TrEMBL record:
Topology versus the membrane: Multi-pass membrane protein
Protein name: Olfactory receptor 8S1-like
Superkingdom of origin organism: Eukaryota
Function as written in the Swiss-Prot or TrEMBL entry: Putative odorant or sperm cell receptor.
Keywords, sorted A to Z: Cell membrane, G-protein coupled receptor, Membrane, Receptor, Transducer, Transmembrane, Transmembrane helix
Gene assigned in the entry: LOC114513051
């Protein structure tokens, strides 16, 4: 039945954005600028960390966080820009499922890396003398690969289950991109099992990483409050401010999006837009402007570039 339904309908209509030409033209320019800034910001952050030897160790996870940001944005925004210029706002079932897979994969990797960065901050602030032992090079590499592997497995399971659904009647997806929750309402099969698996995946991913984040920051706050000097406490808090901002933005919008109903409501689109378009742009800005080491590395790289000319 699933194969016959897939062959009966070959594409979806993505109708989550305004239909009038004036709004579409404005949104095209806006999202194009955001996408270009996202690419340049994340690539620049990776380049600064890679070219500044003193940033290799403390900013190791940050450079790897920028890569899924690039993937996340590149999976979604180009197709959205294409649909804004096209009268026929369609996407094939295969491309839709591929987009949903990479959205799930890169988003899951982001959440895991954010949790790993919280533990890294905990080790640096609470155990500075043992930081090198707690966060060895082998462990850091393993945590990065583990984040990608866990997200890949999670995305693969949910995407394969979604592929088995039948799509035979409703073609309209009330969103600007393909996400696994958005495909359930357009299926003519029973998607209750798919929703249960997706919910379990989201909860395990969310609560597992949230536990690590909250545990790390509970220990960090306890350690900071035990510091006697005001300047010491201020310096310790400043090292966590950028990461806390990223945690709030990503967890808030991403988890709410995957736990809310897929009704095509404005809030659903707002949360999808925030974590898929806005957050990949904000992450390099947050970490650049709130991190003295990154700003110093950027300044040094720019000075070296000017000397070449």
């Amino acid at each position: 039945m699933a194969l016959r339904n897939h062959s009966t309908m070959t594409e979806f209509l993505l109708l989550g954005l305004p239909a009038d030409h004036a709004s579409q033209a404005l949104l095209f320019v806006l999202f194009l600028v955001i996408y270009l800034l996202t690419l340049s910001g994340n690539l620049l952050l990776i380049l600064v960390i890679r070219t500044s030897s003193h940033l290799h160790t403390p900013m190791y996870f940050l450079s790897h966080l920028s890569f899924p940001d690039l993937c996340y944005s590149s999976v979604k925004v180009p197709k959205m820009l294409e649909n804004l210029l096209s009268e026929k706002k369609t996407i094939s079932i295969e491309d839709c499922l591929a987009q949903a897979f990479f959205v799930f994969d890169s988003g899951g990797t982001q959440i895991c890396l954010i949790a790993v960065m919280a533990y890294d901050r905990y080790a640096a602030i609470c155990h500075p003398l043992h930081y090198g032992q707690m966060m060895s090079d082998e462990l850091c590499v393993g945590l990065v690969w583990g984040s990608w592997g866990l997200a890949f497995l999670d995305a693969l399971i949910n995407t394969l289950l979604t592929w088995k659904l039948g799509f035979c009647e409703t073609r309209v997806i009330s969103n600007f991109l393909c996400e696994i929750p958005s495909l359930f309402p357009v299926s003519c099969s029973n998607s209750s099992n798919n929703f249960a698996v997706l919910l379990c995946s989201a909860l395990l991913h969310a609560f597992g990483t949230c536990f690590l984040v909250f545990y790390s920051y509970a220990r960090i706050v306890s350690t900071i409050l035990s510091i006697s000097s005001t300047s010491g406490r201020s310096k310790a808090f400043s090292t966590c401010s950028s990461h806390l901002t990223a945690v709030t933005l990503l967890y808030g919008s991403g988890i709410l999006r995957y736990l809310m109903s897929t009704s095509g409501s404005p809030w659903e689109l707002v949360f999808s837009m925030q974590y898929s378009v806005v957050i990949p742009l904000l992450n390099p800005l947050v970490y650049s402007f709130k991190n003295k080491e990154v700003k110093a590395g950027l300044k040094s790289m720019l000075q070296k570039s000017l000397h070449l000319f």
